[in-house]
Design goal:
Length: 443
């Protein structure tokens, strides 16, 4: 169980401030939780179905809380970008929510935990000459290894594999940030992107989906508000129920909790790559974890005719690997190589009576052309990261050099993530093994 300790005076002040805003808090409070910053714990025995927190709509920070004149300056910006600009540069944040902001993580903590600030991507993209004086950011060439779903590229793969930088989670996030900063930096030309990035990440990691009555034109993913006190809850696969209506937000306990136990909510059915990129952490055990396999199932193992067939059948792309092995879409893609058209169609329809030989042929392609390649990538990434671990570096000078390149947390969390990926690969190797596989060559 995580270690829990008292939260500190600023969090007691926040609790008083939240109550003064009409927030109802029942039997729970903030506490320091080892490994996840602040969180919410039970202050008395909690039974299932109790209303723990209620935040009235009037206490939410929404686009409607922002003065009209300030909003009007930001024509075309996202809700995310506008909330961040308000918090960073409006000057009204102080009067609006200072006690709340005092409980948020610092920029230094974000530099440790958020991949967006590790990669150097932002400093290269926004400030190639280093004029802002921002000191953080690690050049793309620096030797630290993001999982392909995050970084969008394979470090050790043969050149035949597609490089998918544009689809990596981090690239998508950097583009979203870049578009918002593009607007904000024109309004506030003397501000530096680092100050904006801090609040952009505050909104990124602490906002909630909410339907404002006048937000019908806002894209779903951008319907966000900030919700005091409820933003203390940490994430788990399952947790307390969080609901909203026009009256505000309510959190209800999902089960009984003893005094001192942490209560969590679910931020969504996210894989660990998504959690790392969006929130800066991974779960040790994540029911919804998977890794994409799309880059690995392509030209190097199938003809363009196979690709066309898969597209026509609706089975091109979106291939995944989870603790249950590879998904059915992946099985279909592999069978497009190993079966004749008639049998392949039956396989898709679930009516193919597959022989051991045919299973083994599919297993051979999957193991050799997909899983083995991924295994090699994971093993090399792990070797590389192990070298980066500061405690393994012998001289002080080396320690300084390495430590200045890669935050220690980044190395540690990436090592954990790659080990999880390697475990998924090894598990799939077992699940998809067949008695005849070892003697077979791929067709
Ligand atoms: C909505 S805030 C929750 C409160 C936050 N822990 C704090 O200190 O203010 C989301 C952030 O909490 C942390 N977090 C949430 N769930 C976590 C978990 N299961 N393990 C580790 N960190 C977690 C991450 O830093 C994430 O970006």
């Amino acid at each position: 169980m995580a270690r829990v300790s008292p939260p500190g005076p600023e969090h007691e002040q926040l609790t008083r401030w939240a109550r003064s805003q009409g927030v109802k808090i029942n039997g729970v409070g903030p506490a320091k939780i080892s490994g996840s910053g602040l969180g919410i714990v039970a202050q008395r025995r909690i039974e299932a179905g109790e209303e723990l927190v209620n935040v009235p709509a009037s206490a939410l920070l929404t686009v409607n809380s922002i003065p009209r004149r300030f909003r009007a300056l930001h024509e075309g910006i996202t809700v995310h970008g506008l909330l961040a600009s308000f918090l960073a540069f409006s000057g009204s944040k102080k009067s609006y929510c200072d006690p709340w902001a005092a409980t948020w993580p610092s920029l230094t903590e974000f530099k440790e935990s958020m991949p967006l600030l590790w990669s150097g991507k932002l400093s290269q993209m926004l400030d190639p000459d280093g004029k802002s004086g921002a000191t953080h950011g690690y050049h793309e060439a620096s030797p630290f290894i993001l999982p392909p779903a995050i970084g969008g590229r394979w470090q050790h793969m043969p050149s035949l594999l597609r490089v998918s930088e544009d689809v990596g989670l981090l690239n998508q996030q950097a583009r979203k940030f870049g578009a918002d900063w593009n607007i904000v930096s024109r309004i506030f030309p003397d501000k530096v992107w680092e100050d904006y990035a801090y609040y952009w990440l505050i909104v990124n990691t602490r906002s909630f989906y909410f339907e404002l009555p006048d937000a019908t034109n806002t894209p779903q993913a951008d319907r966000m508000v900030m919700c005091p006190f409820v933003d203390y809850f940490n994430h788990n696969d399952h947790g307390c129920d969080v609901t909203f209506d026009q009256g505000g937000y309510t959190v209800i306990s999902d089960r009984a909790y003893d005094v001192g136990q942490e209560l969590q909510t679910s931020y969504g059915s996210h894989s660990n790559d998504v959690l790392l990129c969006e929130y800066g952490f991974i779960l040790q055990s994540n029911l919804y974890d998977y890794v994409p396999l799309d880059d690995l199932i392509g030209e190097h193992m199938m003809s363009s005719k196979d690709t066309e067939n898969l597209e026509a059948a609706g089975y091109l792309g979106n291939y995944t690997l989870s603790s249950e092995g590879v998904c059915f879409r992946t099985q279909v893609a592999i069978r497009s190589v190993t079966l004749n058209t008639q049998d392949w169609k039956k396989f898709m329809a679930g009516t193919f009576d597959e022989t051991e030989l045919s299973k083994s042929q599919a297993a051979a392609v999957l193991q050799r052309e997909v899983l083995k390649l991924y295994e090699k990538e994971a093993e090399e990434a792990l070797q590389h990261l192990a070298k980066e671990q500061v405690h393994e570096i012998s001289t002080r000078a080396e320690k300084r050099e390495i430590a200045s390149k890669i935050p220690q947390y980044a190395t540690e969390v990436l090592l954990r993530r790659w080990k999880q990926i390697l475990d998924l690969i090894h598990q799939a190797m077992k699940i998809h093994d067949t008695p005849y596989y070892h003697g077979l060559q791929p067709p």
